[in-house]
Give the backbone structure.
Amino acid sequence: MLTRNNTTKMQQHIYDTKQQVAEAFSKYLAEFIASRPIVHLALSGGSTPKIVFDELTTHYAEAIDWEKVHLYWGDERCVPPSDDDSNYKMTVAHLISKIDIPDENIHRIKGENDPQEEAQRYSKVLQTKLPNGATDIPQFDLVILGMGDDGHTASIFPHEIALWNADANCVVAVHPNSGQKRVSITGKVINASEAVAFLVTGEGKTEKVQEIINKTEGFEKYPASLVAPDSENLHWFLDAAAAKGITSDRV
Ligand code: 6PG
């Protein structure tokens, strides 16, 4: 395992395998939750969180006081909660159905609603449920993010990178290949979070991780490169496959 403080105010936690990433992040999350009276946590979708949720429910289901955890989503596909594409459905299967968390602590994005109306509704949910300090921007305690092979994060994709700077807390995005609509939180909400943790694993991420962390020419075109929380509390949890292109002088 390798942890280093990168000059771009991030901590890189690199492990040999995806499973070790899941184990390390689960430990980090359990300690994070234990250190706070209440935790507003934004989850990501995709395949990587499944392994983390399985690790959490296997080893931390009883250890974590889920009553103080409020679950939100950083993005959701505009499909019903019963749809196999639903991030909520995946989270119920791998996490929520296996932990003792009050129903009122679950704040899902309603993928079945009209996308624009749901983006507005969820923007209001975040504005009312989350603390917002002096900035009037809803502040999560922790936002968990993945990164797509194309460098997207949450559901802000490179072809719509301007959505990152939207004034709204949530926007409607469109997947570049499938055309599927998504509701996503925006850059201002992500960067207002007390902490941000990227979970990035697999060969498919190597190139973009290399470009973003090494700041190679044009790296700013990837939304994931724009994640820079004001708190400077940014953690990249990576496996060796995703991290192999990081030059060691980025310490
Ligand atoms: C989604 C996610 C998305 C995901 C990345 C990485 O709804 O698809 O929120 O941003 O995190 O696509 O996905 P993997 O973990 O499957 O690589």
